[in-house]
Input
Amino acid sequence: MTSLAKKRLLDLSPTDLQELVLELGEKPYRAEQLAAWLFRRGAESWATMTDISARSRERLAEISDIAPILKPLEIAEADDGARKILWAAPDEAKIESVIIPERDHVTLCLSTQVGCQLKCRFCRTGDLGFTRDLSQGEILGQIFGAKKLLKPEEKLTNIVFMGMGEPLLTLDSVLGALAILTSPKYLALSGKHISLSTAGLVPGLEILAKSGLDFGLTISLGAPTDELRDQIMPINQKYPLKELKKALAAYPLRKGRRLTIAYILLKGINDSPAEALSLSRYLTGLKAKINLIPFNPWPGAPFERPSEAAIQKFWQILFDKRHTVMIRWSKGGKVAGACGQLAGQKAGG
Output
């Protein structure tokens, strides 16, 4: 059997692993040992699995593969400490993720698709089109791969599903990865330190709501009216703001949690006082906080970043309306690793 026909173990759920070991005639507890090595320790070699017999490892190696799925092609570091990683998948597809160091924590922004089919006009990923979804293993592979690239003083504490792609269009992979991320037996990351960002696909929100998994939810809104949102986020034509708000109002939030509304500020498009007031009205009744994100330019982009004065005015209006609102200045812009700039290309490409 060639390696191409082997099962990629990071793509399997713990239940799938149990079925695999039972097919080999192994005891059920072997699946838990294997899952712990894969999902807690990030093992990449059979030889490291010292509590699994040599014979069992040989049998597993005949039908499965634990080698890293993604290979880092380039790491570009910005002067603010952010590092953009360009990965290659086995089919040579390229994706990017970004390590973002903060004063008291380190965040990994990871991707869920190669490209994106939503075509939000302010996002470079959508401008490049769509190739395919990522598998569970390719999502987890970004985490284990990034951990190996951390500096000695760094520890990965936060995960955001905000890179290339729309997470709600690859839900099987995303939910599988989230289950492993949050399981106390595996990566054991608190849901308070995980955020999933979506453009607002209502059916996907309903599935997320029923998943029972613990994570934060961010909605990329972009505009407070259907007329404007239709122009910059075509998905709004399928799931307009009224329908989206109904889904958000029904979304179950854990105690002390709020939705996050991400609002990309575009010069002369959605940054006026009128839009700020309209946004305030739209959010009435929702338990939400607002992140204002000044547009991050990229080659050929049809938009510009608003002036500092316009950004501050927009913030002030929302603050005066008693919203919890922050201005998020993206890191990694110097290496095209900021919000909306990911393109699956080498730095400068």
